[in-house]
Queue: 4 jobs
Job 1
Amino acid sequence: MLCNRCGQNQASVYLTKIINGKKTEVHLCEQCASESENVYMNQELSFQNLFSGLLDIAKNPQTLEKSNYNIQCPECKLTYDRFKKTGKFGCSNCYKTFDAYLPPILKRIHGNYVHTGKIPNNAEDELIKKRKVEDLRKSLKEAILKEEFEQAAELRDEIKSLEKGDDKS
């Protein structure tokens, strides 16, 4: 998605403002977001209130029906209600206990279930290669759906090459 302000760069900052029930979304690139920081970021927010609100927004009717605020982590005894209030897990097992509630929250906050942002400058080649293979797999699926089988074969070969370690690209 392109930046709403400049229309040139890829948007990486997603702001949602809800005032009196009216929802407004703004998608900005890093540069426009940093230039507009004083406009969008000068409002004080409580992390707990923000996180709790995101949990409520993320719930869909199906999740709400099966929701049970008394769900409790068997290891640390943290309840879902307490997690919702604090935004913090008590232990590593909480991820498994509350995993049914996490995908919509992550999707709402980050726009995706997996990290697709920048890679640190000191990232190893494996991380870059892994991301490239994931992108190629997506392109392969799209090519197959479009019945572009020659392109799909090329993508398949490139994936195999990267997975074997023949870094030709």
Job 2
Amino acid sequence: MRTLRRELARIWACVTDRPRWQLVVACVISVWTMAWVLGQAVAPPMTPLEVPMALLDWAGVPVGWLDGAGHWARADSRWWVFAVLAVGGGLLWAATTERAQLTALYGWLAVMAAAEGIGYHPAIYRAIVAMAGFILVLWLLSLPGKVSVMTNRITLVPRDVLRAGATAAAMAAMVPVLAVGLVVIRLLRPYVTRPPKAVVPRAREAQDNSKSLVRD
């Protein structure tokens, strides 16, 4: 359990350690996705476009064009297009790494676009199955290979495949809670007590100290 907490803390640090403009975009998408997910508890459930529609309508901005876009997406003839888009969103989640975090955001945008056409559960299920299926295929392909320590070629290692898949899944799952997490951390920062940092002497300082201990 402690290892899991450390790994999640490491991934959270990676998610928040990005350029400022990326963090702003990520927070906007985070608020949008969180509002959409929570909106499934109301009756009738909210669609992704209804989240900005509610905000714009409150501000007095015309929202007829968003309503028209929603009706266009829900046409039966376009159902398969959004089903494929949901699968693409899951594959974008699977492509997320510590150095390539924008794919998680693109994946959520693709899933929300797909949900506008086919609904929340069909879009989410297809994205999750696509992501899990892709990782499973790579894991199965990695099983027959024998990896040598001295290998000089790119290969698939079962343990590394599972680790990369778990990291991608965690990073994608952290997108909806990113904005809320940053706010909570900022509010609690003045009230938490951090342990003192251990001071490790440098090699030169240790060497100088050893030289100073000379007998007369």
Job 3
Amino acid sequence: MTDSPSTADQADEQEQLAREIGEELTDAFVAYVRGDVAFEDLTFGVFDALSDLHVIASGDYVLEDTDDEAGQDDGDSDEPENP
């Protein structure tokens, strides 16, 4: 029965990821209605989100920890990327 908690954890994780995708789509739809996003960009984003959702539903994914500041860093880090 050790698989049950991990299966439940994975289901909870998948549900949370699906909700996050839904929130991102909501934001994109609102941006489109406001004229902030082109229809072509919205279409691509929706397709990309549906592709992500399919992978999440299949369970064939691995979450990686990312540093939010790393994506915003313009290379001004004091540490070398490849020591």
Job 4
Amino acid sequence: MTAIRKHRRNPNGGEPERSVGGAGADKRVPLKKLALTILLLGLVVLAWLGTLSQYGEDYIDRVFTQALTTFAVARALNGVISVAQGTKLAVEPAGVGANFALGEVLDPINDLIERFSWVMLASTTALGLQKLLLEMAGWWGIRIFLLGSALLFMACLWWPARIYWQFSPWVKQLLLMALLLNFAVPTVAFLSGQVFEDFIREKQQVSMRALERESQEFKRIEESLPSEEDRIKEQTWQEKLSQLMGGMRKSLDFEAEIQRLKVKSEEIAEHVIALIVVFVLQTIILPLLLIWLLLRAIRIIQ
């Protein structure tokens, strides 16, 4: 005989009662409950072990150190450029003295470095906030809240259907809140770490090494330029004659150094822009995007 599939209206209202029409239907419901119970117990154990939180803390500490190092390099480079901007150069092509400041060459790159310093400060602040939230997620009180919510939900899950449908909505909301508090920030940190390792890490390291190298070369070129203070106030006629003979050669060398300085400024600007993109994506845009996706997923589940 085929099993009867009709539903009877519950006289007390609420969900209709399913008629006992086959052994398969009776087995599917307990299996779902059992799977959900095992999943919740696994999440509770994961929260208490703190494996996900520890991975997130290691990732944020690593990125925080990188951000501080990059910020220090940016501030040091900004200091070198600021000093160079206030330096007047003395050139004597063909014996005719000429003075001008490096500010004309360095103004654009100096403005970019200052903005880069502000970006790194914002990135470091965002990482500090993420670290604080991660430490709060690992607090024992939040873990106990998750344990209690999970036990309450499992109790409602295995109670009779009438009791389950009566208490399920607010118990489910309580459980989702506990899961969000325990796993939202660690999950975002974990996913951010995976994206960083797969797509960002190599670009960041290349740009960082290049920026440090170009900064040292930039400083060396700036120190090699003749400053106005290096000029000799009183010279003999032999010294003046010698300076006159070498004037044109020095002026050509000076122009070559200035050109190299411009090229280095452009190379530094390229690496600075690359690091700005990397750190803004890594510390601000990516975490916010992952949090938004997580909240959207929770709404769909609800």
